[in-house]
Amino acid sequence: MAILNIVTCVLICVGIGFAILSTVGNYWLVLSLSFYSMHSGLWSVCNNNYCADMTNVSDIINVTRAFMIIGCVSYSVAFVSSFLIYAKKIKNHKISGALLCATAIFLAIGLSTFTNEANNSYINISGFNIAKSFSWSYIIGWCSFAISVISAVICFAMKVETE
């Protein structure tokens, strides 16, 4: 049982790290031409030499930002809850499990909203072939989502085991 508590705490720490890196990273989307490339995150757009803050953004980006930040905060609360369980200050694993489920939902909404917008937005510059791809900030956001789901399952499994 103590091993599962440690595993959960470690998974949550990794998940928080991934969620924060994803949220602040500038590599959600990469656009490439044969001679030029640029990448963007939720907060700035960059080329090879310069990054500019994104000020006038669509509502979709604001929704993604909000849900990613809420996901990071709920991940942090889930970690505190999990740590208190490990320290035997509280005994109910359902609290951590529920917080991790909420975290997964928040991250999924933010990431799915961005995915939908990125897949539905067309870049049309006549005569140029532009490649659009998701990059590491976006990918570790989905990894963070998966970690929160796995951690929630472990928390609920521990609760069932202790009853």
Automatic annotation (TrEMBL):
* Keywords noted in UniProt: Membrane, Transmembrane, Transmembrane helix
Give the source's domain of life in one word: Eukaryota
The UniProt entry lists membrane topology as: Multi-pass membrane protein
Give yes or no: UniProt keyword Transmembrane helix. Answer: yes
InterPro entries, A to Z: PMP-22/EMP/MP20-like, PMP22/EMP/MP20/Claudin
Q: Where in the cell is it found?
A: Membrane
One Pfam annotation reads PMP22_Claudin
Regions crossing the membrane: 7-29, 66-86, 98-115, 135-158
Classification via PANTHER family: CLAUDIN FAMILY PROTEIN-RELATED, EPITHELIAL MEMBRANE PROTEIN-RELATED
State the name under which the record lists this protein. Answer: Lens fiber membrane intrinsic protein-like isoform X1
